[in-house]
Amino acid sequence: MHDLNKAPPSAPRHPIELDWFAAARRSLQEVNARLIELLASAAENPVECLPLATQFRDLIEPMDPAARARVTSCPYLLVDAGFQDPMRWSRAAAQTEAVGATTPCFPRAQAIELAHMTLLLAWTLVHVNRTGAGLLLGVSPACAEIIANLKLQEMQRIATDYCGWARPRWENRPEVWRRLLSAANSADARALNELGLQGLRLFFGELLP
After folding, report:
1. What is the pTM of this model?
2. 22 exposed, middle or buried (CB, 10 Å; 0-12, 13-18, 19+)?
3. Domain residue spans of the chain
4. Ramachandran region of residue 8, left (φ > 0), alpha (ψ -120 to 50) or beta?
5. 8-17, 76-85, 190-199, range with greatest mean pLDDT
6. How confident is the model at residue 75 (pLDDT cuts 50, 70, 90)?
7. Which of 84, 100, 134, 196 has its CA 20 to 30 Å from the CA of residue 204?
């Protein structure tokens, strides 16, 4: 006889439903970590197209692994790849109009690597959880629709042809980066928490119409 006091067994959930967020956060942190590595390299060997690294050389060069980990653990993508610009993405996807190429801010091989990592993460997450792609990467619904209809090979082409799209987020707001790097170096938990909240406000502010 069925025990009426026993809760009915819940339907098994697909592993993707359980693990997508944890997997996305790990990949997100990996992309963030690569960006910080490239900024550190650019600080040692300045490039004209990335004054941000030179400007904060005093904060980037002394960063130890723990400080870098504190930066890369941000709950949002530190790379801006134009995920709020559907016109750019629709033109690149259609290959019918020239898309204004942005000069890479890192040496070309490194810029392509960063773009591939960023765009592959976006392509994967858009297929797994579009809401998550918006919350973690800042992918707008319009861009998510375009990316979802692209083949992986097409994303690889875009990453290579337009590697200059992958740039530090808030590149034109150096005060944000100064606070972020300073807090990471100081290991001040309160400052990091406050900065994390401020970063979230800035990040989600970009997503609002």
Report:
1. 0.84
2. exposed
3. 19-207
4. beta
5. 76-85
6. confident
7. 100
